[in-house]
Design goal:
Length: 254
């Protein structure tokens, strides 16, 4: 089976009148169907740029991005995007926030509404369907933001440091929560983070980037002997520390 996503020798620079910033240089990697991949790299190395290239907000200057074997623009798959801020609208109820995507896409059907309720129910937010975002905790808000993305039935989910606005304790719980939901829905996911432990605890594979311009420094398969492999349980796996040290060294090499 062809990989869901292929980055082939991608390079990209930002241009302004007086300056060129090379963000990505000869970047090659692929992501298989159903895989959870984390991308780690130093701040400012080009991680968000990679996600914006995947969803077509930016275009590469050279190289090829293939989705299901087709040029990225022609693939027609649904891509979900989750950011650091939940971007929930206070003037809408949780249900109407969750229905934002279908409204924009003009596909508000009875089935979509039922699916939205089903997701809210499955993931513990049914009683909050008519609440306003400010009535929810930070973790519940992130869950609502994830459900808003899932309603669009994405084949690929992009997560750009989605937990970095949360305090440490909440962050552990919310990443556990979100990680479990993504696994349960069997969605292919790419998580961008600068948090090594978060990457190891959530992903099947970690792609380590160099500092800017980003290129692949190395790729580490994560194999942890914990069952079930939830993000929180993963942190207690005997292999966890070795992976952490290995990736830490790789990121801090001169
Ligand atoms: P990361 O997400 O890894 O922190 P980014 O992908 O956001 O990094 O940015 C990579 C580099 O490109 C940074 O040096 C950043 O300053 C620069 N950059 C990002 N967006 C723009 C832009 N719109 N115009 C010019 N430079 C940009
Ligand atoms: Mg970023």
């Amino acid at each position: 089976m062809a990989p869901l996503l292929e980055f082939k020798d991608i390079s990209m620079a930002y241009h302004s009148i007086d300056q060129e910033t090379q963000a990505i240089s000869h970047l090659t990697f692929s992501v298989s169907q159903g895989e959870f991949v984390a991308i780690v790299g130093p701040s400012g190395c080009g991680k968000s740029t990679i996600l914006n290239l995947i969803c077509g907000l930016l275009s590469p200057e050279s190289g090829q991005i293939l989705i299901e074997g087709k040029n990225a623009g022609e693939s027609g798959i649904n891509i979900g995007y989750m950011l650091q801020k939940d971007h929930l609208f206070e003037w809408r109820t949780i249900f109407r926030n969750v229905m934002l995507g279908p409204e924009i896409a003009g596909c508000v059907t009875a089935e979509k509404k039922a699916y939205a309720y089903q997701l809210l129910d499955s993931y513990g937010l049914k009683e909050f369907a008519n609440a306003r975002p400010s009535q929810l905790s930070g973790g519940m808000r992130q869950r609502a933001a994830l459900i808003r993305t899932l309603v669009m039935e994405p084949s690929l989910l992009l997560l750009d440091e989605p937990f970095s606005a949360l305090d440490y304790q909440t962050r552990l719980n919310v990443s556990d929560d979100i990680g479990k939901i993504i696994r349960q829905e069997s969605i292919t996911a790419i998580l961008v983070t600068h948090d090594i432990a978060e990457a190891i605890s959530m992903a099947d594979r970690v792609i380590i980037l160099t500092s800017r311009p980003a290129t692949v420094s190395s790729i580490v398969d994560i194999d942890l002997t914990v069952e079930p492999r939830t993000p929180l349980a993963s942190r207690n796996a005997p292999e966890f520390k070795n992976y952490f040290n290995r990736i830490w060294k790789e990121l801090n090499q001169p």
